[in-house]
Amino acid sequence: MVKAVIFGGTTEGRELCEFCSKIKLPIVYCVATQDGALPVADLSDIEVHVGRLQMTEMTLLLQQLKPELVIDATHPYAQEVSQNIKIACQNTNQSLLRVIRDMDKEEGCIYFKYMEDLITWLEKENGNIFVTMGSSSAAKLKKLTNYQKRVWLRILPSLESLSICLNLGYNPKQLICMQGPFSEDLNRLMFQTADAKILVTKNSGVTGGFPEKVQAARKEKMQIAVLSRPKESAGITLEEAQNRIMELKK
Question: Average pLDDT, stretch 130-144?
Answer without folding.
Answer: 95
